[in-house]
Design brief:
Helix content: over 70%
Low-confidence stretches: none
Mean pLDDT: 95
Number of helices: 6
Structural class: mainly alpha
Number of strands: 0
Order of helices and strands: HHHHHH
Radius of gyration: 16 Å
């Protein structure tokens, strides 16, 4: 990948995705107690949530790093889906709808970067970065 060809907009989106997923990843690694209610809202136990959060944290940190340094389309698609799901969890768990709205950038930024890269037409292109 030629770093000189990356636009300012792409860098801004990469940095935004990196910050969002790194921050969430660190909170998950710390097993943020207030997040355990999101697991119970979908029928899981708090103890399972406490077990899964560090794994989710590692995943989020990996997504953050890939988005910043080598934004594979498949990882950006995952970031869109995961960001949308975790934002939707807020109202599902009883938080106000505005908690979902507030987290729109968590899924919209990876969607915007994916859009700039171009949606793949072939399966193998999901595993490539825009040239």
């Amino acid at each position: 990948m030629d770093l000189k060809k990356i636009t300012k907009t792409e860098w801004i989106l990469r940095i935004g995705i990196f910050g969002s997923f790194l921050g969430h990843g660190v909170f998950a690694l710390q097993v943020k107690q207030s997040w355990l209610s999101y697991f119970t809202a979908i029928g899981m136990s708090e103890s399972l949530g406490a077990t899964l959060l560090p794994l989710i944290g590692v995943m989020d940190v990996i997504v953050a790093l890939i988005a910043l340094f080598y934004p594979l389309r498949i990882v950006l698609a995952w970031a869109v889906a995961w960001g949308l799901w975790t934002a939707l969890l807020r109202p599902i768990a009883g938080d106000p709808f505005w908690d979902f709205v507030e987290r729109s950038a968590n899924w919209a930024a990876p969607l915007a970067l994916l859009s700039l890269q171009g949606f793949p037409r072939k399966f193998k292109d999901w595993f490539r970065v825009k040239n």
